[in-house]
């Protein structure tokens, strides 16, 4: 068997607390080149906080993040040119049209005019956005905003893509288009980190998984290691605290008529 | 046919009075038109045609106002203009449509003002030997204005194939009107002062020999020239009328120019800006300044502050002419100051800048472009006018330099404060006067400190300008000092603000996420 691919994203000992509440507690991850890494956890577990810290959007209290050897917080320019980011619940400049948004993102990452335009067209075609590029982004549905954000994150061909909930509110056809795109990207040596609530999708798409609960990584490794012979969803529910026995809700099962 | 088009025109006019945001604009437009109309009649009653300077003044003022009135229909946006191309889908007789549109063009504010302007000529020349000639010339001139404005509407309708082009047409029309009215007022003031009589006559002669002033100069001519001018006017109106019929027919036959072609491939401002981080941020910023109501509210409020300040000074008993030196510096100060919280206006969209490997200075510089593009031309165009009206000798260099300095220094200071002292602002898509629930003390500090810092940095230039009132040589020094301070502080602000933006970007993002 060939030697494992080199680690391109290394997260060591990241902590973050808001006021007294610890949101991320000593999180460490390593993601290898060419892998699609699924980051799963229940609501409020610290997924978005961790991904924001990795992408330089939120300053950690402690810990280091390196992308392709560049420290995100000490050598931000070098690290950021290697990262493609899709944050969750952040606005775009939504008065721009889709085409303007892609061009904007491309030029901010140092692409020239012609490259920016051709790549915009390619990505729009691959993600099924080609009919909507001339409309302002604020007229887009949530799913389309996710798609244009994904295109904007990929346009400068980053070595690592960090996507927070990229498939939320995206229809099945578009999801499979996006998954195809990501699979091709990873097969060509790109690396993807994505968070999702959709366990089936993670199981189908990702080759490595980390489960985060209450700010701590409870399991991390290849998909097969983490799910340990069961379905990922079962393993996830178990790790996340298991099914709580339904007590005290008897009224819910006695109907009024 | 005629009554159908007229009914359409009247319905369009009535729609301007429907309650809503447009009503305020209607009232403002009416007020401006009323002021121009009253001004024409007052001037016509006051003018003394026996004086050569007054005769020259009539030609210049009437020519300038003719241009303004002819352009006026374009200034309201083309949405409500009766442009012939719009009638293309209907089976209409072009001749009759041309007549209907011509008559409809006479109804409404521009038509009324054209009639008032013509009446003004008759009033001015009343009880002289050429009253009859004045009446004929006035009728022809009013007809020429109305017909010309129909051409302009038709041509602009063909040009305005995209939103950008339409906006450009409206803006150009408004600028032309502003300049024409300013030129008319300047002429009146110069005539009142009784200076520069030769220059006025020279301008009047040139205008009188051009189509614009041909008819306005007619009553002042001797009999032969008067007949020649009236005949010339007749030919002009005849050609305009015949050409109008031809043009309407052409436009009815020509298919509408495709309005979608330009927008599918173009990126608007982004095609004009260089493909660099600073360039695209400038283009994005321009797009927001021109389309986001939070920025547009400022553009509307901007001229109001200087006017209120002037009124306050005047009420306090300050002599009026030197007060003309107040509006431009005040406007420049507020325009530069306005950017001091620009990052908060992006709200969380600023992540796009934070995750990109762009230099902080590019972000800062791009945001400074719209106020510079807006402010510098305003200063260059209006400083000479205001300096002349103020009557303060040699004040122009100081007015130019100090205004530019205040704008650029303000932008430099804003570049630093918007990175360091950002505070919650109205969200994107919010109304112009919406405020976030938690403004906090930080807002007050950022607002007042950035204003005070701008005035503080500009204090040397302002003090030197003050000395100029006793010794005019200081005005030039003040101008140079103002520009030098402005350029220096802008560059410094961009560098310092750029570093601060890079260093504090995550904290800025956290701040806007809380609102």
Question: Can you walk me through this structure?
Answer:
The complex is a heterodimer of chains A (257) and B (515). With 257 residues, chain A is of the alpha/beta class. Chain A is 35% helix and 25% strand. Chain A has a single domain, classed as Rossmann fold (3-Layer(aba) Sandwich), CATH 3.40.50. In chain A, strands 6-7-8-3-9-10 form a 6-stranded mixed β-sheet, sandwiched between helices. In chain A, strands 2-1-4-5 form a 4-stranded antiparallel β-sheet, with helices on one face. In chain A, helix 3 packs across helix 4 and helix 3 packs parallel to helix 5. The longest helix of chain A is centred in the C-terminal third of the chain and has 16 residues. By secondary structure, chain B is mostly helical. Chain B has 2 domains: 238 residues, no CATH class; 244 residues, no CATH class. The radius of gyration of chain B is 26 Å and the shape is globular. Classes of the chains: A alpha/beta (257), B mainly alpha (515). The interface between A and B is large, with 38 and 36 residues.
> How many E strands of chain A?
10
Class computed from helices, strands and strand pairing of chain B: mainly alpha
Query: What integer value in Å does the Rg of chain B equal?
Result: 26 Å
Largest sheet of chain B: none
* Overall 3D shape of chain B: globular
DSSP strand tally of chain B = 0
Average pLDDT level of chain B: 84
Helical proportion of chain B, percent range: over 70%
Largest interface: A-B, 38 and 36 residues
Oligomer: heterodimer
In DSSP terms, counting alpha (H) and pi (I) runs of 4 or more, how many helices of chain B?
22
Summed over residues and divided by their number, the pLDDT of chain A gives a mean of 90
Rg estimate of chain A, integer Å: 19 Å
Largest sheet of chain A: 6 strands, mixed
Q: What is the CATH architecture annotation of chain A?
A: 3-Layer(aba) Sandwich
CATH topology title of chain A: Rossmann fold
Q: What is the straight-line distance between the termini of chain B?
A: 58 Å
Distance between the termini of chain A: 66 Å
Number of domains of chain B: 2
Low-confidence stretches of chain B: 258-264
């Amino acid at each position: 068997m060939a030697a494992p691919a080199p680690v391109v994203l290394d997260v060591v000992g990241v902590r973050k607390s808001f006021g007294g509440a610890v949101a991320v507690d000593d999180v460490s991850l390593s993601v290898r080149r060419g892998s699609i890494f699924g980051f799963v956890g229940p609501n409020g577990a610290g997924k978005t906080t961790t991904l924001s810290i990795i992408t330089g959007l939120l300053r950690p209290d402690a810990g280091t993040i390196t992308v392709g050897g560049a420290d995100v917080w000490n050598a931000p320019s070098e690290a950021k040119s290697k990262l493609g980011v899709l944050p969750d619940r952040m606005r775009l400049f939504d008065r721009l049209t889709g085409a303007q948004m892609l061009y904007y993102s491309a030029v901010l990452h140092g692409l020239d005019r012609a490259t920016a335009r051709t790549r915009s067209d390619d990505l729009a075609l691959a993600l099924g956005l080609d009919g909507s590029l001339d409309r302002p982004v604020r007229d887009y549905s949530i799913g389309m905003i996710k798609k244009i954000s994904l295109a904007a994150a990929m346009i400068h061909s980053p070595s690592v893509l960090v996507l927070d909930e990229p498939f939320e509110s995206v229809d099945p056809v578009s999801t499979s288009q996006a998954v195809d795109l990501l699979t091709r990207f990873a097969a060509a040596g790109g690396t993807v980190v994505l968070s999702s609530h959709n366990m089936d999708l993670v199981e189908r798409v990702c080759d490595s998984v980390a489960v985060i609960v209450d700010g701590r990584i409870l399991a991390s490794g290849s998909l097969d290691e983490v799910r340990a012979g069961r379905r990922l969803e079962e393993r996830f529910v178990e790790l996340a605290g298991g099914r709580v026995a339904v007590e005290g809700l008897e009224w819910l099962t006695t109907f009024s008529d | 046919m005629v009554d159908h088009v007229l009914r359409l025109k009247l319905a369009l006019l009535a729609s301007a009075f429907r309650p809503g945001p447009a009503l305020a604009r209607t009232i403002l437009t009416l007020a401006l038109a009323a002021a121009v109309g009253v001004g024409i009649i007052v001037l016509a009653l006051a003018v003394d045609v026996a004086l050569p300077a007054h005769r020259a003044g009539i030609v210049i003022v009437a020519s300038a106002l003719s241009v303004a009135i002819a352009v006026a229909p374009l200034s309201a946006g083309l949405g409500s203009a009766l442009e012939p191309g719009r009638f293309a889908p209907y089976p209409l007789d072009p001749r009759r449509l041309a007549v209907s549109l011509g008559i409809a063009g006479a109804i409404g504010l521009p038509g009324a003002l054209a009639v008032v302007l013509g009446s003004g000529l008759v009033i001015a020349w009343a009880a002289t030997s050429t009253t009859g000639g004045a009446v004929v010339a006035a009728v022809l001139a009013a007809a020429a204005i109305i017909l010309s404005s129909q051409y302009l509407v038709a041509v602009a309708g063909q040009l305005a194939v995209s939103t950008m082009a339409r906006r450009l047409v409206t803006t150009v029309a408004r600028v032309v009107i502003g300049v024409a009215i300013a030129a008319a007022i300047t002429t009146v003031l110069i005539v009142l002062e009784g200076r520069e009589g030769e220059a006025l006559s020279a301008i009047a002669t040139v205008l009188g020999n051009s189509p614009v002033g041909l008819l306005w100069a007619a009553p002042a001519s001797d009999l032969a020239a008067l007949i020649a001018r009236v005949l010339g006017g007749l030919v002009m109106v005849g050609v305009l009328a015949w050409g109008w019929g031809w043009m309407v027919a052409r436009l009815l036959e020509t298919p509408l120019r495709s309005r979608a072609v330009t927008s599918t491939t173009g990126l608007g401002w982004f095609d004009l800006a260089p493909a660099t981080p600073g360039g695209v941020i400038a283009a994005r910023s321009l797009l927001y300044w021109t389309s986001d109501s939070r920025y547009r509210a400022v553009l509307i409020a901007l001229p109001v502050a200087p006017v209120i300040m002037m009124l306050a000074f005047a009420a306090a008993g300050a002599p009026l002419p030197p007060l003309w030196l107040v509006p431009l510096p005040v406007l420049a100060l507020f325009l530069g100051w306005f950017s001091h919280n620009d990052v908060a206006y992006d709200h969380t969209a600023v992540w796009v800048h934070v995750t990109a490997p762009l230099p902080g200075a590019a972000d800062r510089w791009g945001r400074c472009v719209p106020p510079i593009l807006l402010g510098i031309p305003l200063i260059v165009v209006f400083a000479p006018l205001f300096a002349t009206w103020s009557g303060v000798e040699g004040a122009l260099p100081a007015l130019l330099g100090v205004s530019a300095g205040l704008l650029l220094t303000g932008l430099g200071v804003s570049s630093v404060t918007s990175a360091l002292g950002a505070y919650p602002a109205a969200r994107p898509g919010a109304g112009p006067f919406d405020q976030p629930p938690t403004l906090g003390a930080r807002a007050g500090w950022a607002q007042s400190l950035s204003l005070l810092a701008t005035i503080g940095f500009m204090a040397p230039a302002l003090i030197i300008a003050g000395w100029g009132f006793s010794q005019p040589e200081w005005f030039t020094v003040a101008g140079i000092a103002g520009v030098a301070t402005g350029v220096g502080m802008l560059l410094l602000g961009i560098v310092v603000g750029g570093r601060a933006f890079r260093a504090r970007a995550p904290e800025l993002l956290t701040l806007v996420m809380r609102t």
